[in-house]
Amino acid sequence: MSAFLGLVACNSSETVDLNAAPKPAESGQKLYKKYCQSCHGKTGDARRGNAADLTTSTMTDAQVRNVILNGNDKGMMGYKNLFETEAELDSLVQHVFTLRTK
After folding, report:
1. How far is CA 99 from the centre of its chain?
2. Closest CA relative to residue 82, chosen from 21, 35, 30, 23
């Protein structure tokens, strides 16, 4: 029976790109909604507590990463234990940059 299942799987028309980069477990938008939106708001400008207005941020990619991972002196905690992969962090940083409007 297992040989038959293997044969069926080999005859599948589905293709898999073995060289493709792995997709993050959660997208940046989902991570933002789950961990950031309560303070920064849906569009990044809620400023609850001391949360920065992400729509006007001028921080570089490296600075955004540092704050996400290590927090800051304004009350934001670090989230370095949150990410299972570098791709998840990349995805969140990219989402934060999409919030810039000004």
Report:
1. 13
2. 35
DSSP states along 5-47: HHHHHHT------TTSPPPPSS-HHHHHHHHTHHHH-TTS---
pTM: 0.73
Read off the pLDDT of residues 41-71 as tens digits, 9 standing for 90 and up: 999 999 999 999 999 999 999 999 999 999 9
Tell which residue, 9, 3, 93, has the closest CA to residue 57: 93
Characterise 41 by phi-psi region: left (phi > 0), alpha (psi -120 to 50), beta (else).
left
**Residue 35 or residue 15, greater confidence:** 35
